[in-house]
Amino acid sequence: MRQSREEKAKTHERIVRVASQRIREQGLDQPAVAEIMRAAGLTHGGFYKHFGSRDDLIAEATESALAASDRHVHELTDDAADPLAAFVDWYLSAQHRDEPAAGCAVAALGDDVRRGDERLRSAYRRQVERYLENVERFLGGGEDARQCAILALSALVGAVVLARAVDDEALADEISHAVGEGIGELR
Questions:
Q1: Which of 60, 100, 133, 163 is most deeply packed, by most CB within 10 A?
Q2: Residue 2 parent element (H or E)
């Protein structure tokens, strides 16, 4: 029985969503096509109805993860009384640290993307630029806003990477707290 275009599009989106979560958890090299398809509730054989190669899926999943990060920032900050505090609080939260599959793709994929192709690197750069524009706006603009935004974003991403890597929850919390305090002083 043939799938309608709408059903095929929904299936395609489900595969990309699952792959997006898996690459943020495991990195770009780890999730196998069979694992992704199984997690999406599909058979491995149906993969090529949707993608030309694993690389195509990984590129689309990376772009999707980055776009989801951008949407989430706007959901958090668009109506917030203090957008910078809302962004920083979420970014440095234990939930964000402990759930990379649903978290920021910039923090999760940075090391992998640097070894990726131009499509991946370009998508990553565009998201970093969007983050910087947002943080500049959160800081109120001004003469040093770009430099402060770069400092803040670098500190946030670095804090999440470190907090996820250490095997001591108290140290992870200390890292997050110190970075949050430091960013608060940038205003």
A1: 163
A2: none
Which two structure tokens, joined as six digits, stand for 92?
């440095």
Angle formed at CA 58 by CA 89 and CA 4, multiple of 5 degrees: 105
Measured distance CA(34)–CA(186) in Å, rounded? 46
How many C-beta atoms lie closer than 10 Å to residue 95's C-beta?
Answer: 9
Q: Which residue do the tokens 């110190």 mark?
A: 178
Q: In a structure prediction context, what are the per-residue pLDDT tens digits for the chain, which is 187 residues long?
A: 566 889 999 999 999 999 999 999 999 999 999 999 999 999 988 899 999 999 999 999 999 999 999 999 999 999 999 999 999 999 999 999 999 999 999 999 998 999 999 999 999 999 999 999 999 999 998 889 999 999 999 999 999 999 999 999 999 999 999 999 999 998 8
Task: Identify whether the C-beta of residue 76 lies closer than 8 Å to the C-beta of residue 86.
Answer: yes
| Of residues 73, 179, 47, 181, the one with CA closest to residue 136 | 73
All structural domains of the chain, each given as residue ranges with its CATH number in brackets, are 5-184 (1.10.357.10)
**Burial (CB count within 10 angstroms: exposed 0-12, middle 13-18, buried 19+), residue 113:** buried
Distance CA 167, CA 44 (A): 36
The H or E element that residue 9 is part of is: helix 5-26
